Amino acid sequence: MEGVFRKSANLGSIKRLQDRINKGEKIDFENDPEYKDNVHVASLHASVLLKTFLRSLGEPLTTNKLYPKLAALSEVSKAEKSAAVKEFVKLLPRDNYILLKTVIKFLTRVAENSKVNLMTANNLSVVFGPNLTWPTDQEVPISQLNNLNNFCYKLIVDYDSVFDH
C-alpha cells in the first residue's frame, strides 16, 4: 500500500483492534470479517498498530540507558558507521535485540517493495527512527533526530551485517 506507514487510521478502530489483541484474540487480517475485503484498511491498521505498540513500550528498544552510546554514533565516520551500529546492537538486552531484529527484518521487506509502497529505507527510518530510539527519561535536542533516523536507516540497509548470526 502506497505510503502505508505515513497514513493515520481511525483512532476508534485502532482502539477496538488493540482491545481485541489485549483480550488474547488472534487477529487474522486475511479472514477477519472487518478486514477480509479491504486489504488497504487491514494494512493501514496493522501499520498503525505496530507504531502504537513501539511507542507504548515505556522506553525505546534501544533503551534509555544506552542512549548516550547511541547519540555518540553521530561522531563515527561514515566508513565506520555500520561496524559501530553492529557493536551498539550487541549491547542491547536479549529481548530488545530479538524484537529489534524482527521489526527491522520486517522493514527491510517493506523497503524491498518501495517501488509500489513508496516506503524506501530512508522513508521508513524517518517514521520508525523516533519510535525505536527516542529516550523517555531525558530531554533530547531535536537536532539529534537526524542521528536517530540515520541509525534506523543503517539497521535497515545493513540488516544482514548488523544482525548476522
Key traits:
165 residues; mainly alpha; Phosphatidylinositol 3-kinase, Chain A; 2 domains; globular
Can you put this structure into words, describing what you see?
The protein has 165 residues and is an all-alpha fold. The chain has 2 domains: 56 residues, no CATH class; 107 residues, Rho GTPase activation protein (Phosphatidylinositol 3-kinase, Chain A, Orthogonal Bundle), CATH 1.10.555. The chain is built from 9 helices and no strands. The longest helix has 19 residues. It is globular and about 50 Å long. The model has no long low-confidence stretch (mean pLDDT 89).
Number of H/I helices: 9
Describe the largest sheet: none
- Total domain count: 2
Contiguous uncertain segments of 5+ residues: none
List the helices and strands and how they pair.
Elements: H1 11-22, H2 39-55, H3 67-72, H4 78-90, H5 94-112, H6 114-117, H7 121-133, H8 145-157, H9 159-162
Gist of the model:
The protein has 165 residues and is mainly α.
